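User: I'm putting together notes for a lab meeting next week and I want to include a structural view of one of the chains we've been expressing. I don't have a solved structure, so I'd like a prediction I can at least talk through. The sequence is below, exactly as it appears in our construct file.
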Amino acid sequence: MDVPEPSPPILTNGHLRLRRCRHGIMLYNLNDTHLGTMLDLYGEYSEAEADMFRHFLKPGMTAVEVGANIGAHTLALAGIVGPQGRVLAFEPQRIVFQMLCANLAVNGIEHVDAHWAAVGSAPGRITVPRLAGTQRTNFGGLAVGGGQGDEVSLLTLDSLELPACDFLKIDVEGMERDVILGTRQTIRRLRPTISVENDREEKSPALIQLLWDLAYDCYWDIPHYIHVPNFRGNTENAFPTMASFNLVCLPREKKLTIGHLRKVEHARHLAALRGLARLDRRAGDQQPRGTVARAEALRSGDRPVRPGARAGAAVRDHARQPRQQPCGTRSLRGGAGRLRSCARNRAGQCPGPREPGRAAVKGDSAAKAQSSETQLGSPAAGCRSR
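Assistant: Thanks for the context. Below is the predicted structure for the 386-residue chain, given as structure tokens.
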């Protein structure tokens, strides 16, 4: 069982703060409405993703992270592969990259190669807008290309001719397909497990089709950013509706499956999935109403959060255990939050409990799915998130 770490910050200097977090000491920007705020309040960020990393990585392996930000997941990857392993981390934003390097240095991590570069489908140069650290924004939501800013190297992973790549993580704000196009030779040669963000409906079908063409099976991974309990023992979740929409992709020839994740069955799965989950992946200036206010109310100076403090009425405990619904529909993911009982159940029309994986009673018009793993968008997949 995790012991909450409610200690005060190690250092606060203007908009920068240094604090002990789950995977090590982290330097972050207090003006970051997204990652920085979450580290400040909870000492962790999307920890369910780190849990997923552990399923596919072990000491001595090589992981590649494209879009490392300040290193919240880089530190987790480095800890999993250990000093005998290797992590390559790429981040194109100048001040964000500087904090990434600071977080690696302050934790004495020497087996991570950090690169100030963007990754895409072809080599060249690309403009990355320069955001002032003193402005409040979601620094991780910045799209590169066009406008004014720093001219940064644009490279392909294929050009590196990596000798090993066991796990490839991609989170690049809409450029995910470009990254994979520039990594096709490496993917065909080394066959890594791939975790790639897929939260843009207009780009999702092409991304999924590319992965299928590379002979990968894809599964939806939808981890909430914040869980209760968390590293700092904060029971108030200021970001209850926010989650990542990721794909976990496995080489088809290995004949692997992920039992607790939903397999992608068609290229336009994202729109139906988003409607079912009612979750948002939004930029800092577009967060759901009240999110920023709740976060600011929780962050009161340097006072530590008292472990076990009573949560407000609006707080939701997004448990990491799967939850069986009365109609047999399960949560989308073990660590991605609970689904509320379906509309038929609330109307008193649900056919009632049944064993996972078993078909509904034949002839039941209210449950046309052939198993509890119903297709999204079908009449039987009517559950919504809280």
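A couple of points you could mention at the meeting. Residues 280-289, 301-386 have pLDDT under 50 and may be disordered. Residues 321-386 form one domain.

User: Perfect, that's what I needed.
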